[in-house]
Amino acid sequence: MLMADVAWAGLDLSLRPVGRAGTGARNVEALAERPLEAQLHLMAVASIGTSSSLRPTLRPNGVVTQAMARKNKRLKGAVCGDPDIQGEVVGRVPGKLNGCGVENAVRVRNVAGITLSQQSVMDCGTAKALKKWINKGAKPAVGSKGGGLSGLKVAAHYSCRTRNNKAGAKISEHGKGRAIDISGLVLNDGRTISVLKGWHNADSKTMRSAHKKACGPFGTVLGPNADRYHQDHFHFDTARYRSGPYCR
Question: Could you point out which of 64, 68, 91, 132 has its C-alpha 20 to 30 Å from the C-alpha of 168?
């Protein structure tokens, strides 16, 4: 019994770990000075942190596949080299009248996420101007009203005719694929703000702002204040003038 006591007395029963040689010894000694329960708690936390923080969470394969499918669909339907302009290439459109026609036409159905009420034929310059106006003019003008802008009511696009259909007049920009007429703004809640009514009622601020912001992206902007021919729609075209945009 005495020898057993002597043997146990030779052992260090403090649970103090032996420090490793090198820079880690100080850390081990510092840990050893804490109560046993505290030591175990710290070791558990360190283990959990190491195992979880270094491994990134991977997206499910289904999510990645769906995202890629949407991207490929947009690229497949893109025209004018811009995924934000969705439609199809038409190519050369011959004119029935001298001065009409489009050399490299596209048929556009959606621009910057905004759906056109009818697929519209135009050239790429006009399609890009429309995108700029939608992003910097129409969307900000509508804001959050009715849940935001979702579509455009198209009154006219390519049409081989004279200006205002007058006999003997010059060929309209519509006849060159450089124009589009907008008669209303469609909101996400299903409501449509028409140019005819919206220009003068409670939506006047929205309509007038959308009209004003078109001046720049388009070379010609005509609305209800222009003449009797434009009381119910905006006329936008990409004609350019030395004096700058013509906006009424």
Answer: 91
Question: Residues with Cβ < 8 Å from 47, sequence gap 6 or more?
Answer: none
Q: What's the alpha-carbon Rg for the chain, to the nearest Å?
A: 35
What does the block give as tokens for 216?
């720049």
Does residue 88 surpass a pLDDT of 60? yes
What percent of the chain clears pLDDT 70, i.e. is strictly above it?
71
pTM: 0.72
Burial of residue 15, with CB atoms counted within 10 A of its CB: 0-12 exposed, 13-18 middle, 19 or more buried: exposed
Longest dimension (CA), the chain: 129
Q: Which residues are paired to 85 by β-bridges?
A: 111
**Residue 114: Cβ-neighbour burial (10 angstroms; 0-12, 13-18, 19+):** buried
Among 128, 116, 132, CA closest to 186: 116
Provide the pLDDT for residue 68.
Answer: 62
pLDDT at 7 over 60: no
Which residue type, as a one-letter code, is found at position 199?
W
Domain ranges of the chain: 68-247
Q: Which of 163, 214, 207 is nearest to 185 (CA)?
A: 207
- Pairing relationship of beta strands 234-237 and 179-187 according to DSSP bridges: antiparallel
Least confident of 11-15, 80-84, 229-233: 11-15
CA distance 31 to 236: 76
Q: Which helix (H) or strand (E) holds 61?
A: helix 61-76
